[in-house]
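User: Can you recover a sequence for this backbone? Please restate the input before giving your answer.

Assistant: Of course. Working from this structure:
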């Protein structure tokens, strides 16, 4: 299958990124992986539009992505990372209230791409945040925390300044990392689409095909999703750490792809990776 070949090629780029100590080379390999994923998606969309047999056409699917075990803290940042990647790869998401799993809606090749990138970038995010926490750089910073108090029958929220805790620093670091990854991948995707449209053959109609793909996915999501309410990226009591945010953003800018475990469609949750405590 085309998607299998795509994963093999992306996997090669991920391994090349992992093997280099040069951050510029690592970034180049990451962007190449995203360009390949975007270009492949375009090719599949064009093929779908010219398919003569409806039964053979690829259609959107729903896939459950396991994020973590129930009761674990800090899963929101893991979900945030996956959703950031998904947004840049034409995949819509619903999130379980517990943040333990994501319901991904999209074409199989696009969801495959999201899982491959997530498997690699999650390892990178966790390692980078661990290194930041171990450095102790956050200990000289204060943060603003929202506190809810109940007086009589009414609840009040107030903000207080506290010394940044390790869990606060980790969550802020990982949030900023996920946001930066999302921006980088979205930028690469936009460039790839503009280039594909500019270089297309006269009768290819790539822009129209992309629009049709978008509409098809939107229709599928509307008819399939049973989500209610809005998922919150941040917990109500989470504090803010400017230093951790800046450090997470820097790590996201220079993130290397690759690593553990190997890319696998069967891998829904990464063993040995723990959310923030």
């Amino acid at each position: 299958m085309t998607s299998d070949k795509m994963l093999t090629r992306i996997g090669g780029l991920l391994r090349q990124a992992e093997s280099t100590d040069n951050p510029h080379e690592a970034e180049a390999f990451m962007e190449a992986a995203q360009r390949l994923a975007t270009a492949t998606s375009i090719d599949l969309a064009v093929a779908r539009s010219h398919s003569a047999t409806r039964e053979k056409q690829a259609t959107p699917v729903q896939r459950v992505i396991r994020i973590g075990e129930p009761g674990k803290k800090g899963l929101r940042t893991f979900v945030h990372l996956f959703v950031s990647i998904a947004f840049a790869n034409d995949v819509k998401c619903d999130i379980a209230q517990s943040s333990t799993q994501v319901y991904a809606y999209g074409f199989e090749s696009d969801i495959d791409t999201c899982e491959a990138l997530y498997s690699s970038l999650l390892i990178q995010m966790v390692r980078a945040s661990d290194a930041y926490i171990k450095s102790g750089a956050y200990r000289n910073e204060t943060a603003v925390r929202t506190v809810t108090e109940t007086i009589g029958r009414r609840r009040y929220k107030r903000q207080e300044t506290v010394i940044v805790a390790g869990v606060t620093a980790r969550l802020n670091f990982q949030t900023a990392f996920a946001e930066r990854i999302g921006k980088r991948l979205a930028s690469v995707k936009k460039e790839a689409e503009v280039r594909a449209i500019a270089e297309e053959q006269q009768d290819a109609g790539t822009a129209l095909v992309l629009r049709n793909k978008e509409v098809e996915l939107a229709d599928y999501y509307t008819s399939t999703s049973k989500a209610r309410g809005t998922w919150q990226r941040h917990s109500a009591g989470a504090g803010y750490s400017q230093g951790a945010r800046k450090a997470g953003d820097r790590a996201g800018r220079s993130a290397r792809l690759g690593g553990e475990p190997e890319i696998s469609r069967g891998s829904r949750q990464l063993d040995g990776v723990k959310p923030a405590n």
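That completes the design. Residues 166-199 form the longest helix (34 residues).
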